Amino acid sequence: MGRFTKMKKEPNLFLAFVPVISMIVLLSLGYGFFDLPPEPIIIVSTIIAGIIALYLGYSFEDIMGSVSEKIGKTMPAILILITVGFMIGAWMIGGTIPMLIYYGLKIINPEYLFLIAFLVTAIVAIFTGTSWGAAGSIGVAFMGVAIGMDTNLAAVAGAVVSGAYFGDKLSPLSDTTNLAALSTGVDLYDHIKHMLYTTLPSFFIAGIVYLIAGFIITGSEGTIPDKVFTIMDTLDQIFSWNLLYLLPLVIVLYGAIRRKPTIPVMLLASFIAMANGMVFENFSLNQVVMATLNGFDISMINKASFDASSVIKDIPTLLNRGGMISMMNTLLIAICAIAFAGTMMVSNSLNVIIQSLLKVVKGTGSLIVTTIVTCLTTIGVTSNGQISILIPGEALKDAYVKRGLHPKNLSRTIEDSVTIIEPILPWTAAGAYMAGTLGVPTLSYLPWAILCYTGILFATIWGFTGFGITKLENNDSEKQQNLTKRMIK
After folding, report:
1. Gap between the Cα atoms of 98 and 115, Å rounded
2. pLDDT tens digit string along 244-260?
3. Which of 42, 254, 283, 357 could bridge across to 287 with cysteines, CB 3.0–4.6 Å?
4. Is 6 a domain residue?
């Protein structure tokens, strides 16, 4: 029976690159030109990687074992993503997120239009976990302010995009933030905290520019359009504001500061928000539970004075969101990408590719630059932020560990060169969405989307200076390397 056991071979560089090149070509054509969904394309690429693994002598059981192992290791992060959807739905129906949006809009001042657009959009994105939702709701309101004041629309759009992606990047509710932590095996809150090294300097530079530009360009003669007041009046009509609505936010912030387990903290905050929805907003138990599953919808509002069909379209854009179901597309892409990485890993193809790329790496700075180039190439070719986070994260993690660098340096660099770069590339889904939603071409708002490109600058500087670079402790480094060896075997 053992006579026919096929000898397992190491792939050469060409065979190792075939699945990667296939995925790039297929995604470029299918996703980029024919608007095909990315998941089946990744599966086809996985099949190609599997055929090469079989050719090299690995069995189907070897392939499935590698894929299963990787999915098993990412299951805690997958559960966090599902919990995020649960919490967003609960925070919407419990009034937490609407209250933050309402009071954010109240602080608009024409003299500080660019800065306030940046800050308020960032706040909304942090507490909703969605850059698209923040730009498509509050961002659109600020564009209305800019039109009414006859000011620089590109500057306001750039400020909105910067704020939306600052918030998305640092939000524990964001799918991309969770995916970056997932793909590199980093604790979610460790990842968010570590991103402050590059994100805060970018934030302050952007804020200073928007403050100065606001005084020079806008002045104090502008007026706020009626749409902003309509949104605020509608929110005031729907919800009964209560300080207890902020308790779920306090719990999450406390849990993050004290490093409490993520899922229990999120669930506790969600249950309190659900209770707020039932006690103060008179939603039924069925409605609050359905909000955690399918997301909140304004059709759930049963106040006699409110007519959901009569509201402006910005209100549903702003409020209809959340629920565990909303995370399913992100989870599907994640699982498909993990299957591809697992199939590549079983034949050692990923290691062969990475070793060839890392031959030019001489130190931490060049490793960071290599990561940035890899991520920029991936997002530029695939036009998909989720894929561009998952693949480099999986492929480069071991290279950081072997050099004694904590993987959170990788997760931060991935966000700096994928998450916030995507909206300033015209051919990506994010770039097209922002341009269409805000009514300003991508290349026009690009110079003003300051936060979106300064992150790479600071990532590179810190890489070469060593500032903000976390090393692995000796015991942690040995543990990670032993895990890597077991995965390769």
Report:
1. 21
2. 999 988 887 787 677 77
3. 283
4. no
Listed residue (380, 414, 455, 445) closest to 28, CA to CA: 380
Task: Give the span between the Cα atoms of 156 and 112, in whole angstroms.
Answer: 11
**Measured CA angle at 254 (ends 252, 255), to 5 deg:** 65
Residue whose token pair is 């599902």? 82
Burial class (CB in 10 A: 0-12, 13-18, 19+), 111: middle
Helices (H) and strands (E) in the chain, counts: 24, 0
Structural contact between residues 370 and 464, judged by C-beta atoms closer than 8 angstroms: no
Q: Chain-wide mean pLDDT for the chain?
A: 83
What pTM was estimated for this model as a whole?
0.70
Residue 106: strand, helix, or coil: coil
Are 168 and 129 a contacting pair, CB within 8 Å? yes
- For residue 321, give both structure tokens: 């969101």
Which secondary structure element, helix H or strand E, spans residue 471, and what is its range?
none
Report how far residue 109's alpha carbon sits from residue 111's, in angstroms, rounded to the nearest whole number: 6
Tally of CA atoms within 13 A in the half-sphere of 489 that contains its CB:
6
Count of structural domains, the chain: 1
Q: If you average pLDDT over each of 179-183, 314-318, 339-343, which comes out highest?
A: 179-183
Tens of pLDDT, residues 284-329: 999 999 999 999 999 998 877 778 788 887 788 778 878 899 878 7
HEC string of 203-234? HHHHHHHHHHHHHHHHCCCCCCCHHHHHHHHH
Largest CA distance in the chain: 87
Domain of residue 235 covers 77-327
pLDDT band (50, 70, 90) for residue 2 = very low
The whole-angstrom distance between residue 293's C-alpha and the CA centroid of its chain comes to 21
Burial class (CB in 10 A: 0-12, 13-18, 19+), 486: exposed
Is residue 418 domain-resident? no
Summarize pLDDT for 189-202 with one digit per residue, the tens. 899 999 999 999 99
Within a domain: 294: yes
Q: Where are the alpha helices (DSSP H) in 295-327?
A: 314-319
- Report DSSP letters for 334-375, one per residue: HHHHHHHHHHHHHTTHHHHHHHHHGGG--SHHHHHHHHHHHH
Phi, psi of 124 (to 5 degrees): -60, -40
Residue with tokens 């989870």: 331
Which range (82-91, 183-192, 306-315) has the least confidence?
306-315
Q: Establish if 479 belongs to a structural domain.
A: no
User: What whole-number distance in Å separates Cα of residue 145 and Cα of residue 168?
Assistant: 23
Residue type at position 354: I
What three-state secondary structure class fits 420?
coil
Rounded Cα gap, residues 451 and 462, in angstroms: 16
Give which of 375, 391, 382 is closest to 428, Cα–Cα. Answer: 382
